[in-house]
Design brief:
alpha+beta, D-Amino Acid Oxidase, Chain A, domain 2, 3 domains, nine-stranded mixed sheet, 20 strands, about 25% strand, binds flavin-adenine dinucleotide
Length: about 375
């Protein structure tokens, strides 16, 4: 029997969408070029963070956070999600004002933010460096294991009847009559009345085929992990700064290893699908860590890696209907913050596709906002 919808791309967005579409009674075919979760969804830092997000995105992030808490019952796996809290720290008075404004925003109410300074902060977080001025605490945020995420959603989706095929690369999508023909590099043609593109950093290549280029850059954030240390850093910690170069973040897992990233991104090769771990990143990161949490500067790093992520020019994802073609939907370009959103994006896209509307506002992420991109920029974006 032919599917109701074909999903292209098996990261967390594609696999979660497949899972939730199946729950809503849709027959789903998911096609993944390599193996599910092998790109950004499996290589990311693992932050399940809401604080600091673009405020109009918090409704989506809140919906996703609620799902993170229900994963064992939903997909039979907890993805090692630990709601240990998250702190965002700053070094300067003007940044402290930014943290306070964010905490006071009505959209952020559900996050339960509280700002600590002075002795209160030092008592709670004695390991923070002397330059840290304030810490904004989000008690319900946390972290999870990205390696587990997309494969777990894929397993649950498959168990429930989703047709999920790996090693199938899609080169072209044609609108034919009221449906679509989806062509693979091996010459197969799949048909369905609806298509959802969840191709991550490669999403713009497919949307360009329908005259909807997206100005996107591809970058490889640099990650590292230390040897196991005593388990003292319960919260995920990140620096809030307008100076990109001083942003660093870390989390510790109960086994003791500290995972960190930030301050350096490489240019991945989208054709070889590789994002190199850059040796020059580590000394810079250790320097930023010394400022944030001096004790960590002495830790031994046992592995470094990177991943391929698509960053949309305005730092907001593409989510929703195609503005050109009936039956075509997009969820890609999550600009370095899609892991936390993954379950919520899957749920929202399934609701939108199955019912024609969604209760969570996603208008700011509409692809139509780029309809005015100039021809020069559009072709540049399509070549990414
Ligand atoms: C190093 C790093 C650290 C990050 N840290 C965090 C973090 O801590 N917290 C957070 O919230 N976010 C983080 N992110 C961002 C987050 O990982 C991504 O936004 C999210 O995983 C995107 O999921 P996705 O499913 O859209 O993309 P992907 O995981 O890239 O999946 C897209 C899939 O589509 C497939 N595909 C592409 N083209 C085709 C085609 N033509 N045919 C078939 N299949 C195709 C690819 O093979 C890929 O598997 C980080 C990203 C990176 C790289």
């Amino acid at each position: 029997m032919s599917p109701d919808i074909i999903i292209i791309g098996g990261g967390i967005m594609g696999t979660a969408s497949a899972f939730f579409l199946n729950q809503r009674g849709q027959r789903v075919l998911l096609l993944e070029r390599g193996l599910v979760g092998q790109h950004a969804s499996g290589t990311n830092f693992g932050n399940v963070r809401r604080q600091g997000r673009y405020l109009p995105q918090l409704a989506l992030a809140n919906r996703s956070r609620a799902l993170w808490g229900r994963l064992p019952e939903l997909i039979g796996d907890d993805l090692e999600f630990l709601p240990t809290g998250h702190i965002r720290v700053c070094y300067r008075p003007e940044e402290l004002q930014g943290l306070q404004d964010y905490a006071n925003a009505p959209e952020a109410r559900e996050l339960g933010l509280r700002i600590y300074q002075g002795t209160g902060m030092r008592r709670r977080y004695p390991w923070l460096g002397p330059e840290v001025l304030a810490a904004s605490h989000a008690p319900f945020d946390g972290h999870a294991n990205p390696r587990l995420a997309a494969p777990a959603f894929a397993r649950a989706a498959r168990r429930n009847g989703v047709d999920l095929r790996e090693n199938v690369e899609i080169t072209r999508i044609d609108k034919v009559g009221s449906g679509f023909e989806v062509h693979s590099t091996a010459g197969e043609v799949f048909t369905a009345p609806q298509v959802l593109v969840t191709a991550g950093a490669w999403g713009g290549k497919l949307s360009s085929q329908f005259g909807e280029p997206v100005p996107m850059l591809t970058r490889g954030p640099q990650m590292a992990v230390t040897e196991p240390l005593p388990y003292v850093f319960k919260e995920v910690v990140g620096v809030s700064s307008k100076v990109n170069d001083e942003v660093i973040y870390f989390r510790q897992i109960p086994r003791g290893n500290v995972i960190f990233g930030g301050c350096y991104r490489t240019l991945p090769d989208l054709d070889s699908l590789r994002s190199a771990a850059a040796p020059q990143a580590l000394p810079l990161q250790m320097e930023r860590l010394r400022r944030l949490a001096p004790a960590l500067a002495r830790a031994h790093v046992i592995r470094t890696w990177s991943g391929v992520e698509g960053y949309v020019e305005d730092d907001r994802p593409i989510m929703g209907r195609s503005s050109q073609v009936e039956g075509l939907f997009y969820a890609f370009g999550f600009s370095g913050h899609g892991f936390q959103l993954g379950p919520g994006v899957g749920d929202v896209m399934a609701e939108l596709i199955a019912t024609g509307a969604t209760g969570t506002p996603i208008e700011p992420f509409d692809i139509g906002r780029f309809q005015t991109v100039s021809v020069g920029r559009a072709s540049e974006a399509a070549g990414q």
